[in-house]
Amino acid sequence: MRFVDEFRREADAQKLVRAIERLVTCPWTIMEICGGQTHNLIKFGIDRLLPPSVTLVHGPGCPVCVTPLELIDKAICIAQQPRVIFTSFGDMLRVPGSHSDLLSARAQGADVRMVYSPLDALALAQKYPDREVVFFAVGFETTAPGNAMAVWQARQLGLRNFSILCAHVLVPPAMQAILASSDNRIQAFLAAGHVCTVMGTREYEPIAEQYRIPIVVTGFEPLDLLQGLYMALRALEEGRWGVEIQYSRSVTREGNVAAQRLMHQVFEVCDRQWRGIGLIPASGYCLRSSWAEFDAERRFDLSGVTAQESPICIAGQILQGLKKPPQCPAFATQCTPEHPLGAPMVSSEGACAAYYQYQHT
Amino acid sequence: MELQCPIPISDYPVVTLAHGGGGRLSQMLIERMFIPTFSNAALEVLHDGAILELNGTRLAFSTDSFTVSPLFFPGGDIGSLAVHGTVNDLAMCGARPLALSAGFIVEEGLPMEDLWCIILSMQRAAAKVGVPIVTGDTKVVERGKGDGLFINTTGLGVVLPGVHIAPQRAAPGDVILINGAIAEHGIAVMSRREGLAFETELVSDSAPLVDLVMRVLEVGGDQVHVLRDPTRGGVASALNEIAAKAQVGIRLDEERIPVGDAVRGACEILGLDPLYVANEGKCIAIVAPEVADRVLEAMRVHPQGAQATRIGEVVGEHPGKVFMRSRIGGLRVVDMLSGEQLPRIC
């Protein structure tokens, strides 16, 4: 299959592995930002092919994992209200809130539907004018343009029964929070290729300068990941810092300007809670006040919702790269995909689920 | 007053869809509720059907319920699927199907024409395999209490003499074969579901496997140790069940697992792993190494096995676990999923 097979050739992968082995002279710690990258690193066994002196740390780039508990509780509360059709991307459905998850809410009678695009939710709002259709707008900068488009189209269509529960998060503030932490041990980043396809790479330049750190914008296929690692390690070995683009077939410095314009029309930057990490200033999107009519948090009474995290789960340390999943005392014992204590065990992009699925023996 | 046992410990107060997804939660229902409660020797083999002995004849007995939505999908419909599903389960016991029953649970309001099309399709599918539908039942439920139509089929078959198929027979050194490309049924059905529709030329692989299995057994005889049709939960779940039951390890080679381009494309976009997607016309055969080449050849000359290939082997290491060598040479565990796979966000 084109655009897939050529990035999964074993001979080329082995060449890159050899090149990395020749390059590395001392231990280095690199964080891949995106959960999609984490998933493929483990799925293809890339972490096991690297020299032991290279440590990969899995970043907070799993949107399902960092969505705060309170928003999941709010989602469940909205879904349980009469006349509501609650729509969501698939992997959000199983994430545990304080007491339940959206799939269990559905089993108990709530109308929860999985959609693949916010525009499918919009189509449901058109099809059922007497129902309230709510879309769970989760994700990083990658999904923000599509969600902004859904809201924009809802206004064009004059739909009064459509709203979004906005849980958008942004990558650069999370990177800064990790780098500013006194516990930080990250020496280079693989930045998320698809986030940068939308946003471009300009906003990463001051981070690379301030913290003197290499940031390589990397794709998701095995050869992308190996090449991104090679580029990051080469910069580290040569004592360079700055932003480099490995994923050049998709990413430009400017990004997708039309998408950015639409996002800025509909969303504004706000402070946001990250599950397991806490409040990061200016790290999310919410709807601008001129679009408030589409904000599910204003449309529904959610005053009774209070959230309570599991005291055992160390998701915060996992998401900041301070610990690996097997270091959690609950990993694969009290916390499993059937009974997750925290979100990283739920999403296929979550670090704990990736370890459980592909390496747990 | 009747004495009642407390319900077995469960993490869920109510049944969720994941309990029917063919993964770990389905297995928990079976292992914690059904097996210990109905406990008997025939049930505990945990095969696609039970083997019952009657005056020296071994009968295979199997049942399956079909709840597919939409009722008509590319490459088939619930009627033909209900016939193929049960005759295939009998074939996986090494049996030639003798007769089927059909139970219909119809939702009030189902168009009569749809029902008629489905009945005709069942008849055609049964005639093609040469198995009569000999008894049946019909119930109609109120509108909103069923998803159009559910069908249950139960089948009776005669196990071929000298054939002993059971998951426990998988042994180190055995070769794992499959008769063609995987994940076509699940993706074809998903491509037509509300909320997830996408355009693809792909059709379900729904087909009867009786003839193919008879050829495999003619060639391999008692050296054919396990047969399994990887339906719900896909190849990964089927192999995990076999590895656990036989307490052997399984090694797969990703490069050798046949996946069509349309399926791979859809799986890449949706973030699904084809190893966990349902098949309705595929057969995994675990056979002794001495007969592997001949069985493979017999599959390949059969119309349902043109793409048959060897995908892995049974090993003595890591009992109960399935490992796969990835395309780029890394090694990973292929675990059982909790429930159904959910398409991911980005």
CATH superfamily of the largest domain in chain B: PurM-like C-terminal domain
**In the CATH hierarchy, what is the architecture of the largest domain in chain A at level 2?**
3-Layer(aba) Sandwich
> Topology as H/E string of chain B?
HHEEEEHEHEEEHHEHEHEHEEE
Number of domains of chain A: 2
pLDDT < 50 stretches of chain B? none
Description of the molecule:
The complex is a heterodimer of chains A (361) and B (346). Chain A is 39% helix and 20% strand. Chain A has 361 residues and is of the alpha/beta class. Chain A folds into two domains: 311 residues, Rossmann fold (3-Layer(aba) Sandwich), CATH 3.40.50.11740; 44 residues, no CATH class. A six-stranded mixed β-sheet of chain A has the order 4-3-5-6-11-10, with helices on both faces. In chain A, strand 3, helix 6 and strand 4 form a beta-alpha-beta unit. In chain A, helix 2 packs parallel to helix 16. Chain A is globular and about 65 Å long. The mean pLDDT of chain A is 92. Chain B is α+β, with helices and mostly antiparallel strands. Chain B has two domains: 111 residues, 60s Ribosomal Protein L30, Chain: A (2-Layer Sandwich), CATH 3.30.1330.10; 167 residues, Phosphoribosyl-aminoimidazole Synthetase, Chain A, domain 2. Helices cover 30% and strands 24% of the residues of chain B. Chain B contains nine helices and 14 strands. In chain B, the strands form three sheets. A seven-stranded mixed β-sheet of chain B has the order 9-11-8-12-10-13-14. Chain B has a five-stranded mixed β-sheet with strand order 1-2-7-5-6, with helices on one face. In chain B, strands 3-4 form a two-stranded antiparallel sheet. The N and C termini of chain B lie far apart (56 Å). The model of chain B has no long low-confidence stretch (mean pLDDT 91). At the A-B interface, helix 1, helix 2, helix 3, helix 6 and helix 16 of A face helix 1, helix 8 and strand 14 of B.
